[in-house]
Amino acid sequence: MAARAMEGRPHNRSLTFNLTTADLAQWNVSQYDRLDPDRRFDTIVIGVPSGATAHLCACLGAPLLADGLPISFASRGKPDDVAGYQQRSVDLLTPILNHNPDLLAVSLFDPIHARRQIRRSVQIYLKLAVLPDQYRRFIRERLMPGGSILLLSCSSRWSQYELGARHRLQIGSHGGFTDQEFIRGTPWLDDWLHEVGGMQRSGWRLSRHWTYQPEAQWGSITGFATSVRTFAADVNISLHSLDFASVDEISRLGFYAWQWLYYLLQVQPGAVLVESGPQMNPVIGRRSPVLPVWMPSTCSRSHALLQTILPDFPSDIPVLFQAWPSGHSSPDVIPAKIWNTTLSGRHGRWLGGNPLRFPNDFSTITKMTPAIEEWSQRHPFKLHRSLRCDELTELRSILAQSLDQTGTGGYAPLENAGG
To answer: Which H or E run includes 108?
Structure first.
């Protein structure tokens, strides 16, 4: 049950012969079918999907048209067999890519953070090379006159093996290790593999050409952004573009966007909500005055991200911490005691999880959302309006100036922002 909850339900291989770009795009726009068909949006966001993007979209009151989507296929394998994973990926993706020339695929092999998943499935990220017709139609039907497209692009890159003209294999993912450490290995990683019974040593690599490419989960393809800009110009729609070096930057902007909106509305926030991985509740800020921070993982890189934002947390409100139970204790996973130390003095508390059992308390998966919903019901709030696209770009400019002034890699606090 825990594996099912963590991994989702992988698709059957037969889908590979029928899946099309139109299917992916239609699935995305169908998420908004339950809305009033006459509803129009001031802003439609196009680009990088992530938990941080979800919080940003909720702040803007905007739907997201993702530039890529993850999909997993049921396929048995060994957690350190990168060559076998490569062959399984090629077998699955060849029919998809053959009848979808507007797709690029990245197979993700992460033998540190996804050992369970590798045994059961192949994880693939399908990236759009051009703006699909379903997205174009959605924009024409749902964007109000005078509205804007907000294009989110991320230049995050990772070394990948080229398996074909539009198929790549990425070793490793966001956490506490670099791509080079995945490929070449490290002594302390070898020690951990020995502890968990893994036979691999000195990294995972193939006898193939590799090069730096857009990262599997969040790296943007240049051609897709060009297609969006061309479409916006052709139909005379205003387009705002935000470029990020990493998904961590999107997380920062998501937090500051909500802080900025509360400041503009003169609303005193009641708590900071720190989420991670698959756990996200982006609408919480519309139901309760909460400042959200989404971390991609509970590894050392996300811990560093939290530390950079922490100084801008209002000092007099609690921090509600929801750490996703990954079920693995790899060397880069930050233990509960360090998270507790980081949040000490911030009225912090774990919400919906038991820190003594982190990261192996799988019951947390069923408790986190009810816990934050219960907190929200005790602190009700009605958001009178969303952040406007021009206000977001103004905020980005203010943060960039602040970053230049501090010269420390962090931001100077927004004056009086959020109280």
So the answer is: strand 103-109
